[in-house]
User: Which sequence fits this backbone?
């Protein structure tokens, strides 16, 4: 929440986490702070169809 001013308000922002719960919470925080083009990656990284680099 302390770094919202670092995010672009004119771009699409996609939030995500491991299973989308925190991604959903992050999207609510963004929307409540005036961000309008916010989406959540449903299912989070658990549903990502590609191999993840760690």
Assistant:
């Amino acid at each position: 929440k302390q770094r919202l001013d670092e995010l672009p308000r004119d771009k699409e922002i996609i939030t995500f986490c491991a299973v989308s719960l925190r991604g959903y919470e992050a999207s609510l925080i963004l929307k409540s702070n005036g961000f309008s083009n916010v989406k959540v990656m449903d299912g989070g990284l658990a549903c990502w169809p590609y191999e993840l680099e760690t």
